[in-house]
Amino acid sequence: MALEIITANRLGDGLVIFLTTDGWSARIGDAVVSESRDETAALLARAEADAGLVVGPYEITVERQADGSLHPVKYRETLRTRGPSVRTDLGYQAA
Amino acid sequence: MALLKNGRLIQDRWTTVDTLTDALKPGGVLVPLDLWLAERDTLRGKSAVGVILPNDADPDLLADDDDRIAAIVLTFPSMVDGRAFSQARLIRERFGFDGEIRARGPVIADQYLYLLRCGVDAVEVPDDTNVESWLRNARRFSTVYQPAADDRVPAYRRRHLVAASAIAS
Amino acid sequence: MYVYDELDRGLVNERVEEFRDQVSRRISGELTEEQFRPLRLMNGLYLQLHAYMLRVAVPYGVLSSTQMRKLARIARVYDRGYGHFTTRQNIQFNWPKLEETPDILAELAEVEMHAIQTSGNCIRNTTADQFAGAAADELEDPRIWCEIIRQWSTFHPEFTFLPRKFKIAVTGAVSDRAAIKVHDIGIVLVQGADGEVGFEIWAGGGLGRTPMIAKKIREFLLAADLLSYLEAMLRVYNRFGRRDNKYKARIKILVHEIGADAYRDAVEAEWADIRDGALALPAQEISRIRKAFTPPAFEVLDAVSTAFEARKFEDRGFARWVASNVRRHKVAGYAIANISLKPAGGIPGDATAEQMDAVAEYADRWSFGEVRVAHEQNLVLPHVRQDDLYDLWLALGSVELDAPNIGTLGDIIACPGMDYCSLATARSIPVAQQISERFADLERLHDIGSISLNISGCINACGHHHVGNIGILGVDKKGEEFYQITLGGQADENAAIGRIIGPGFASDAIVDAIETIIETYLSVRQDGESFIATLNRLGQTPFKEALYGTA
C-alpha cells in the first residue's frame, strides 16, 4: 500500500499539523507513517481523540524521497504543506 | 431527557406514544401527526394530547384543532435544519396557538433565543444541561431588528416610540 | 453613510461577547467542532487550507476612511499585512488565530463593523451598486434599502438555519453593476405608475453548480412593503427549499423545480397574511435611514473642468487612466474614480495594509472620506472633484494602485482558488497573474477594450466564471489542474450564462488559449465592436475553430 500520514489543522491557530508518534508537529518530516490500512485507521482514531486540539483530521498519501523526506502525492496537499504558491513569503515555505 | 421551560429544567410529564391504545391511557401523551389525523375524534375527548409535527408537514393540518391540542412538538433532525422555525411562527402567530410548542432534536443553547423568538416555549434537553448557558443566550441581545412571535419591539419601531414619547412629554 | 445608534452599537457589542463565549466553549470542549462550525461560520470564520480565514462584512460595499484604517490595522496586527476584497464586496483575512478573532471583532465593532452572517446558511451581506449615490444613471440610492434589509436580516430568528446561503443584491440604476440577476433575490428600484419609487423583484438566480438567471417575481412593490414581501419569499424558501442535497438547496432550484409562477403564487399567498402586520416599515424609519445617505456637501462646479481637460491633454498616462478608471458622476464637476486592485501580475483583490491606509487618506482628502468596494474586487472613491483627479492619480501611483485597466482584460475577477481555499479543485490566482502579464501592454489592452474575464477554482463559482464574457473554471483532472473555458457570460442587465466552448486546457496551455480567443476577436470584430457584441453576432464558431481547428 501507498504510504499515508495523518494531517489536521490546529484548533488554536488553524495551522497545518501532522500526527507524530507522540503528538502533533508542524513539520511533515515528523509525521508517523502508516504502511497499511489498519495502521491508518488506528492513527486516525488516535487523531480523532484529539478533537479538543485539532480540527478535521484526515489521511493523505505521501512518497518518501531519496533523501528520506516525505512529500504529499496530491498537489493540493503539497500546497497545504508549504503555503500559497502565489505568496512564497508566507506559510511554512517562508521559514 | 428533561424539559427546559420558563427558565427552569423540569421533569417531562409527557409520554411519547405510537399507538391509539397507549394514547388512551391516563396521563399526557404526545402522538405522531398521522395518529392524530386518523384518530382525531377518539383522541379529542382526552384532555392532555400533544401532536408531534414532522418538519416537512404543513402546520395547516392542525389549524382547526388548536383548541383541542395541549402541545405541539416540532422536530429538528439536526441543529441546522431550520424548517421548524417557520412552523413555530405560523402556529403561534397565524393560528394563535397558546399551548406548549416544544423543540425536539439536537438544538443547542446558542439557538435558544431564535427558538423563543419563533414561539417555542419548551425544549427537550439532556438531564445534565447547563441551564445558565441557555438562559444567558436567551438574554444576550438587548435589541431585535425584526418582529417575531414574541412581544419584543423591533428597533425600527422602538426608535420612534422613544422619539414620540419624548415629544409628547 | 449610516451611523449606528445605541441600539445598533449594543447589538454588535453583544455579538462580540457571544462569539467570545462560543470560542471559549469550543476551546474548553463544551462545544464540539460539529456544533461550533455553524456558529463560527455565522461570524465569517472559515477553516481554510493553511489557516482560519475571517470574512468581514462591508455592508453593501460602503466603507468610511476610519473603517478602512481599521481594516489596515487588523491586517497588520492580527494577520500578515494584507487582505483580500471579494466578489461580494467583503474583505477576507487569511491568517487569523481562533483565539484572537473575538478581539478582531471587538476592534471592528469600534468602527461599526462586524462579520455577522458573512457565511453560513443565512441571509448574507446585501450587496449593491458600488457607485450608489454617485452614479449618473441612478433613480435612487439603493443603500437606503440595503441598510433596511441588513437590519431586518440580522439575527432573523426564523431564517438563520436556511436550506443554504442566501444572497440579496440591490441596484437603483439603469445599468446593473450589482449583478442582481445572479442573486437569490435581486431588487431593482423602479418608478411606479404614479411616480413613486418602489421595487421590481427577481428571484432564483445564482451561479455555482447549476447557474441560473433570476426570474421576475413581481413587477412593482411599494417601498413600505419591502420587508413583508421579503419575509414571505424567505418563508416559502425555508419551508419548501430542498434539504436532501446541498447542491440542490439554493432557492434557484426551488424556483426552477416548481416554476416561477408557482413560487410567486406561494409568496403572494403568504404575503397576503403578513402584509399588514408588524413588518410594515414606519415612514419615520425610512426617512431616518434616508437621511443617513444624504449626499455630501458637493460644491457647485462647472460641468467641465478646464484644468482637468488640460491635464489629460498634457499627460497621456493620466488620460489613459481617466479613460478606463473614471466614470461620470451625477453632480457637475465631480467624477467617480475606480482604484484597480489588479496590477499586471498581481493577485486580484489583494491590498496591503499600507495600500488600505493610503486609500483611506485619499478618501479623506478627495472623496468626503468615503470608499466603496466593487464586486469586481476593486475599490472606488465615489465623489472626487475632476480638478483633484490628477493629484489622486499621482498619489495612487506612489502606492502602485494606478493600474489603468478597469473593465479591460487586465481587470480579472478571480476567487482565491486552491492557493487558499479548502474547497478549490485548482488554482485561480496564478492563471489570472499569467493572463494579466501576457496582456500587460497598455496599447494592446486598451485596443482589446471592454471585456470581462472571470476565473473560479471550483464549481462553486466564487469567481463568477459563468458570467464572464470569458469564463475559466479550474478543475482537477486525474491530479492535474485543468481549465475549462466558457464564452458569452454577462453579469449586467443583460445577464447571461456563458457556454462551454470545448475541451479544457492544461495549466501550461490556458493562457495561449485565451490569447487565441482574443486574437480571433481582433481579427473578426467590426469597428468599435466589443468582444461580447462580436461573440453575440458571430456565435462561438470562429473561436472554436481557432482553438480546436476545423472539424
Walkthrough of the structure:
The complex is a heterotrimer of chains A (95), B (169) and C (551). Chain A is built from 2 helices and 5 strands, in the order E-E-E-H-E-E-H. Chain A has 95 residues and is of the alpha+beta class. Chain A has a 5-stranded antiparallel β-sheet with strand order 3-2-1-4-5, sandwiched between helices. The radius of gyration of chain A is 13 Å and the shape is globular. An 8-stranded mixed β-sheet of chain B has the order 2-1-8-7-6-5-4-3. Chain B has a single domain (2-142), classed as TIM Barrel (Alpha-Beta Barrel). Chain C contains 18 helices and 21 strands. Chain C has helices at 6-28, 33-41, 65-77, 101-110, 143-153, 226-240, 251-258, 260-274, 283-292, 306-314, 316-325, 353-366, 389-398, 429-438, 442-448, 510-524, 531-538, 541-548; strands spanning 45-47, 52-56, 62-64, 82-85, 91-93, 127-128, 168-171, 185-191, 197-203, 215-222, 326-328, 334-339, 350-352, 370-373, 379-385, 413-414, 453-456, 470-477, 480-487, 499-500, 505-506. In chain C, the strands form 4 sheets. In chain C, strands 16, 17, 18, 19, 20 and 21 form a 6-stranded mixed β-sheet that branches. Chain C has a 5-stranded antiparallel β-sheet with strand order 1-2-5-4-13. Chain C has a 5-stranded antiparallel β-sheet with strand order 3-14-15-12-11. The mean pLDDT of chain C is 97. The chains are: A alpha+beta (95), B alpha/beta (169), C alpha+beta (551). At the B-C interface, helix 3, helix 4, helix 5 and helix 6 of B face helix 1, helix 2, helix 5, helix 6 and helix 9 of C.
